Amino acid sequence: MTTAPVAPLTQLGRLSVADFMRTTWQKRPRLLRNALPLASPPVDADALFTLAARDDVESRLVTSFDGRWSLRDGPLPARALPARRRADWTLLVQGVDLYLPAAAALRERFRFISDARLDDVMVSYASDGGGVGPHVDSYDVFLLQARGTRRWRVSRQRDLDLVPGLPLKILADFRAEHDWLLEPGDLLYLPPGVAHEGTAVGPDCITCSIGFRAPAYRELVDPWLDALAESAHGRAALQAQLRERIDAPTAHPARLSEALIDDAFSRLRRIEPTRVQAEQALLAVLSEPKPVVAFDPPVRPLAAAAFARAAARRGLQLDLRTRLLVGGGGRIGINGEVLALAATERAPIARLADCRALPAAQCRALDPLLLTRLHGWYVDGWLHPG
């Protein structure tokens, strides 16, 4: 059976999500007490240490022993980690939601922001005094205290100069404007560009960071050129050769001619993206998993007919690592690929994207063409029978 979808939050403590989006999102830092009470952390220390040892998971170990900062990238086997009782160290593990269902369920609670922006759940474990120093992030983040206590100091200062010569980007002159202690269930929201420092107060401090993507526009260039090259007009524009009118010998052979610059400028101005090409670029970039992510295809995949029967009995579930986004006109982006859907495929795929699952009853009504597509995704490890 497919797992029931986890509903996005509608309240953040005493504040409704609608009011939060209107008054706070990308505007100012905000502490939300008891915003998300937890019966237990979505990941415990042992599970986090196990993930950190894997070579397909991003992890970092940050220490500040004797006031000296050090950074080590994973994989980090257990023997590489300091003793838990030793102060001043932090383990950070990215993409925990891609591997642990409880962390994925936590991510689902924040789907009041679109999947195109939602990045991943990073979990940090810190001993007493552990942290990564005062720094600035370029993206929105919710910081959920899951276990223990963490002190957060926050500043909207404009001086963002860094301490030179360190392996971490630590602010040289951090001046806190807010000083808060967070207990389990407390949530701190920080918009991009806000300086902050989190320090564990006591042992066994676990903090979950729900981060949001902020891709640079340059990331859209390659997918846009790919989309452009698919059209006849685009191919012609990209394959046209630069030309210049030469009617006299040059006295400066190393200098670009003004005619060549003018021709290049004129041709580049003609290659303007359409709205559809911009959408295709976004679908490709924002559905692309991180480079470290690898899918696990089934060892003995079901044949197409057996897969259809399994879906009809148990439903279908997207893999935790799959990113599926829906655009207009039947276009979708799935794990970095942009596809065009037939009319009969669009509504079921939209439901699959929103709910990350299709129940058995809906699978029994699927068009054979769509079942063939879904079987291909199953073979690639992108989804599974429930």
Question: How would you summarize the topology of this molecule?
Answer:
Blueprint: E1 11-12, E2 15-16, H1 17-23, E3 30-32, H2 45-52, E4 59-63, E5 70-73, E6 89-93, H3 101-108, E7 118-126, E8 141-147, E9 150-155, E10 178-182, E11 187-190, E12 195-200, E13 205-212, H4 221-229, H5 232-239, H6 258-270, H7 275-286, H8 304-314, E14 316-318, E15 324-326, E16 331-334, E17 337-340, H9 343-355, E18 357-358, H10 360-363, H11 368-379, E19 383-385
Tell me briefly what this model is.
Helices cover 27% and strands 22% of the residues. The chain has 386 residues and is an alpha+beta fold. A hairpin with a 2-residue loop joins strand 16 and strand 17.
Description:
The protein has helices at 17-23, 45-52, 101-108, 221-229, 232-239, 258-270, 275-286, 304-314, 343-355, 360-363, 368-379; strands spanning 11-12, 15-16, 30-32, 59-63, 70-73, 89-93, 118-126, 141-147, 150-155, 178-182, 187-190, 195-200, 205-212, 316-318, 324-326, 331-334, 337-340, 357-358, 383-385. With 386 residues, the chain is an alpha+beta fold. It has three domains: 11-212, Jelly Rolls (Sandwich), CATH 2.60.120; 217-245 and 255-274, no CATH class; 304-385, Malonyl-Coenzyme A Acyl Carrier Protein, domain 2 (3-Layer(aba) Sandwich), CATH 3.40.366.30. An eight-stranded antiparallel beta sheet has the order 3-11-8-13-7-6-4-5, covered by helices on one side. A three-stranded antiparallel beta sheet has the order 10-9-12, with no helix packed on it. The radius of gyration is 25 Å and the shape is globular.
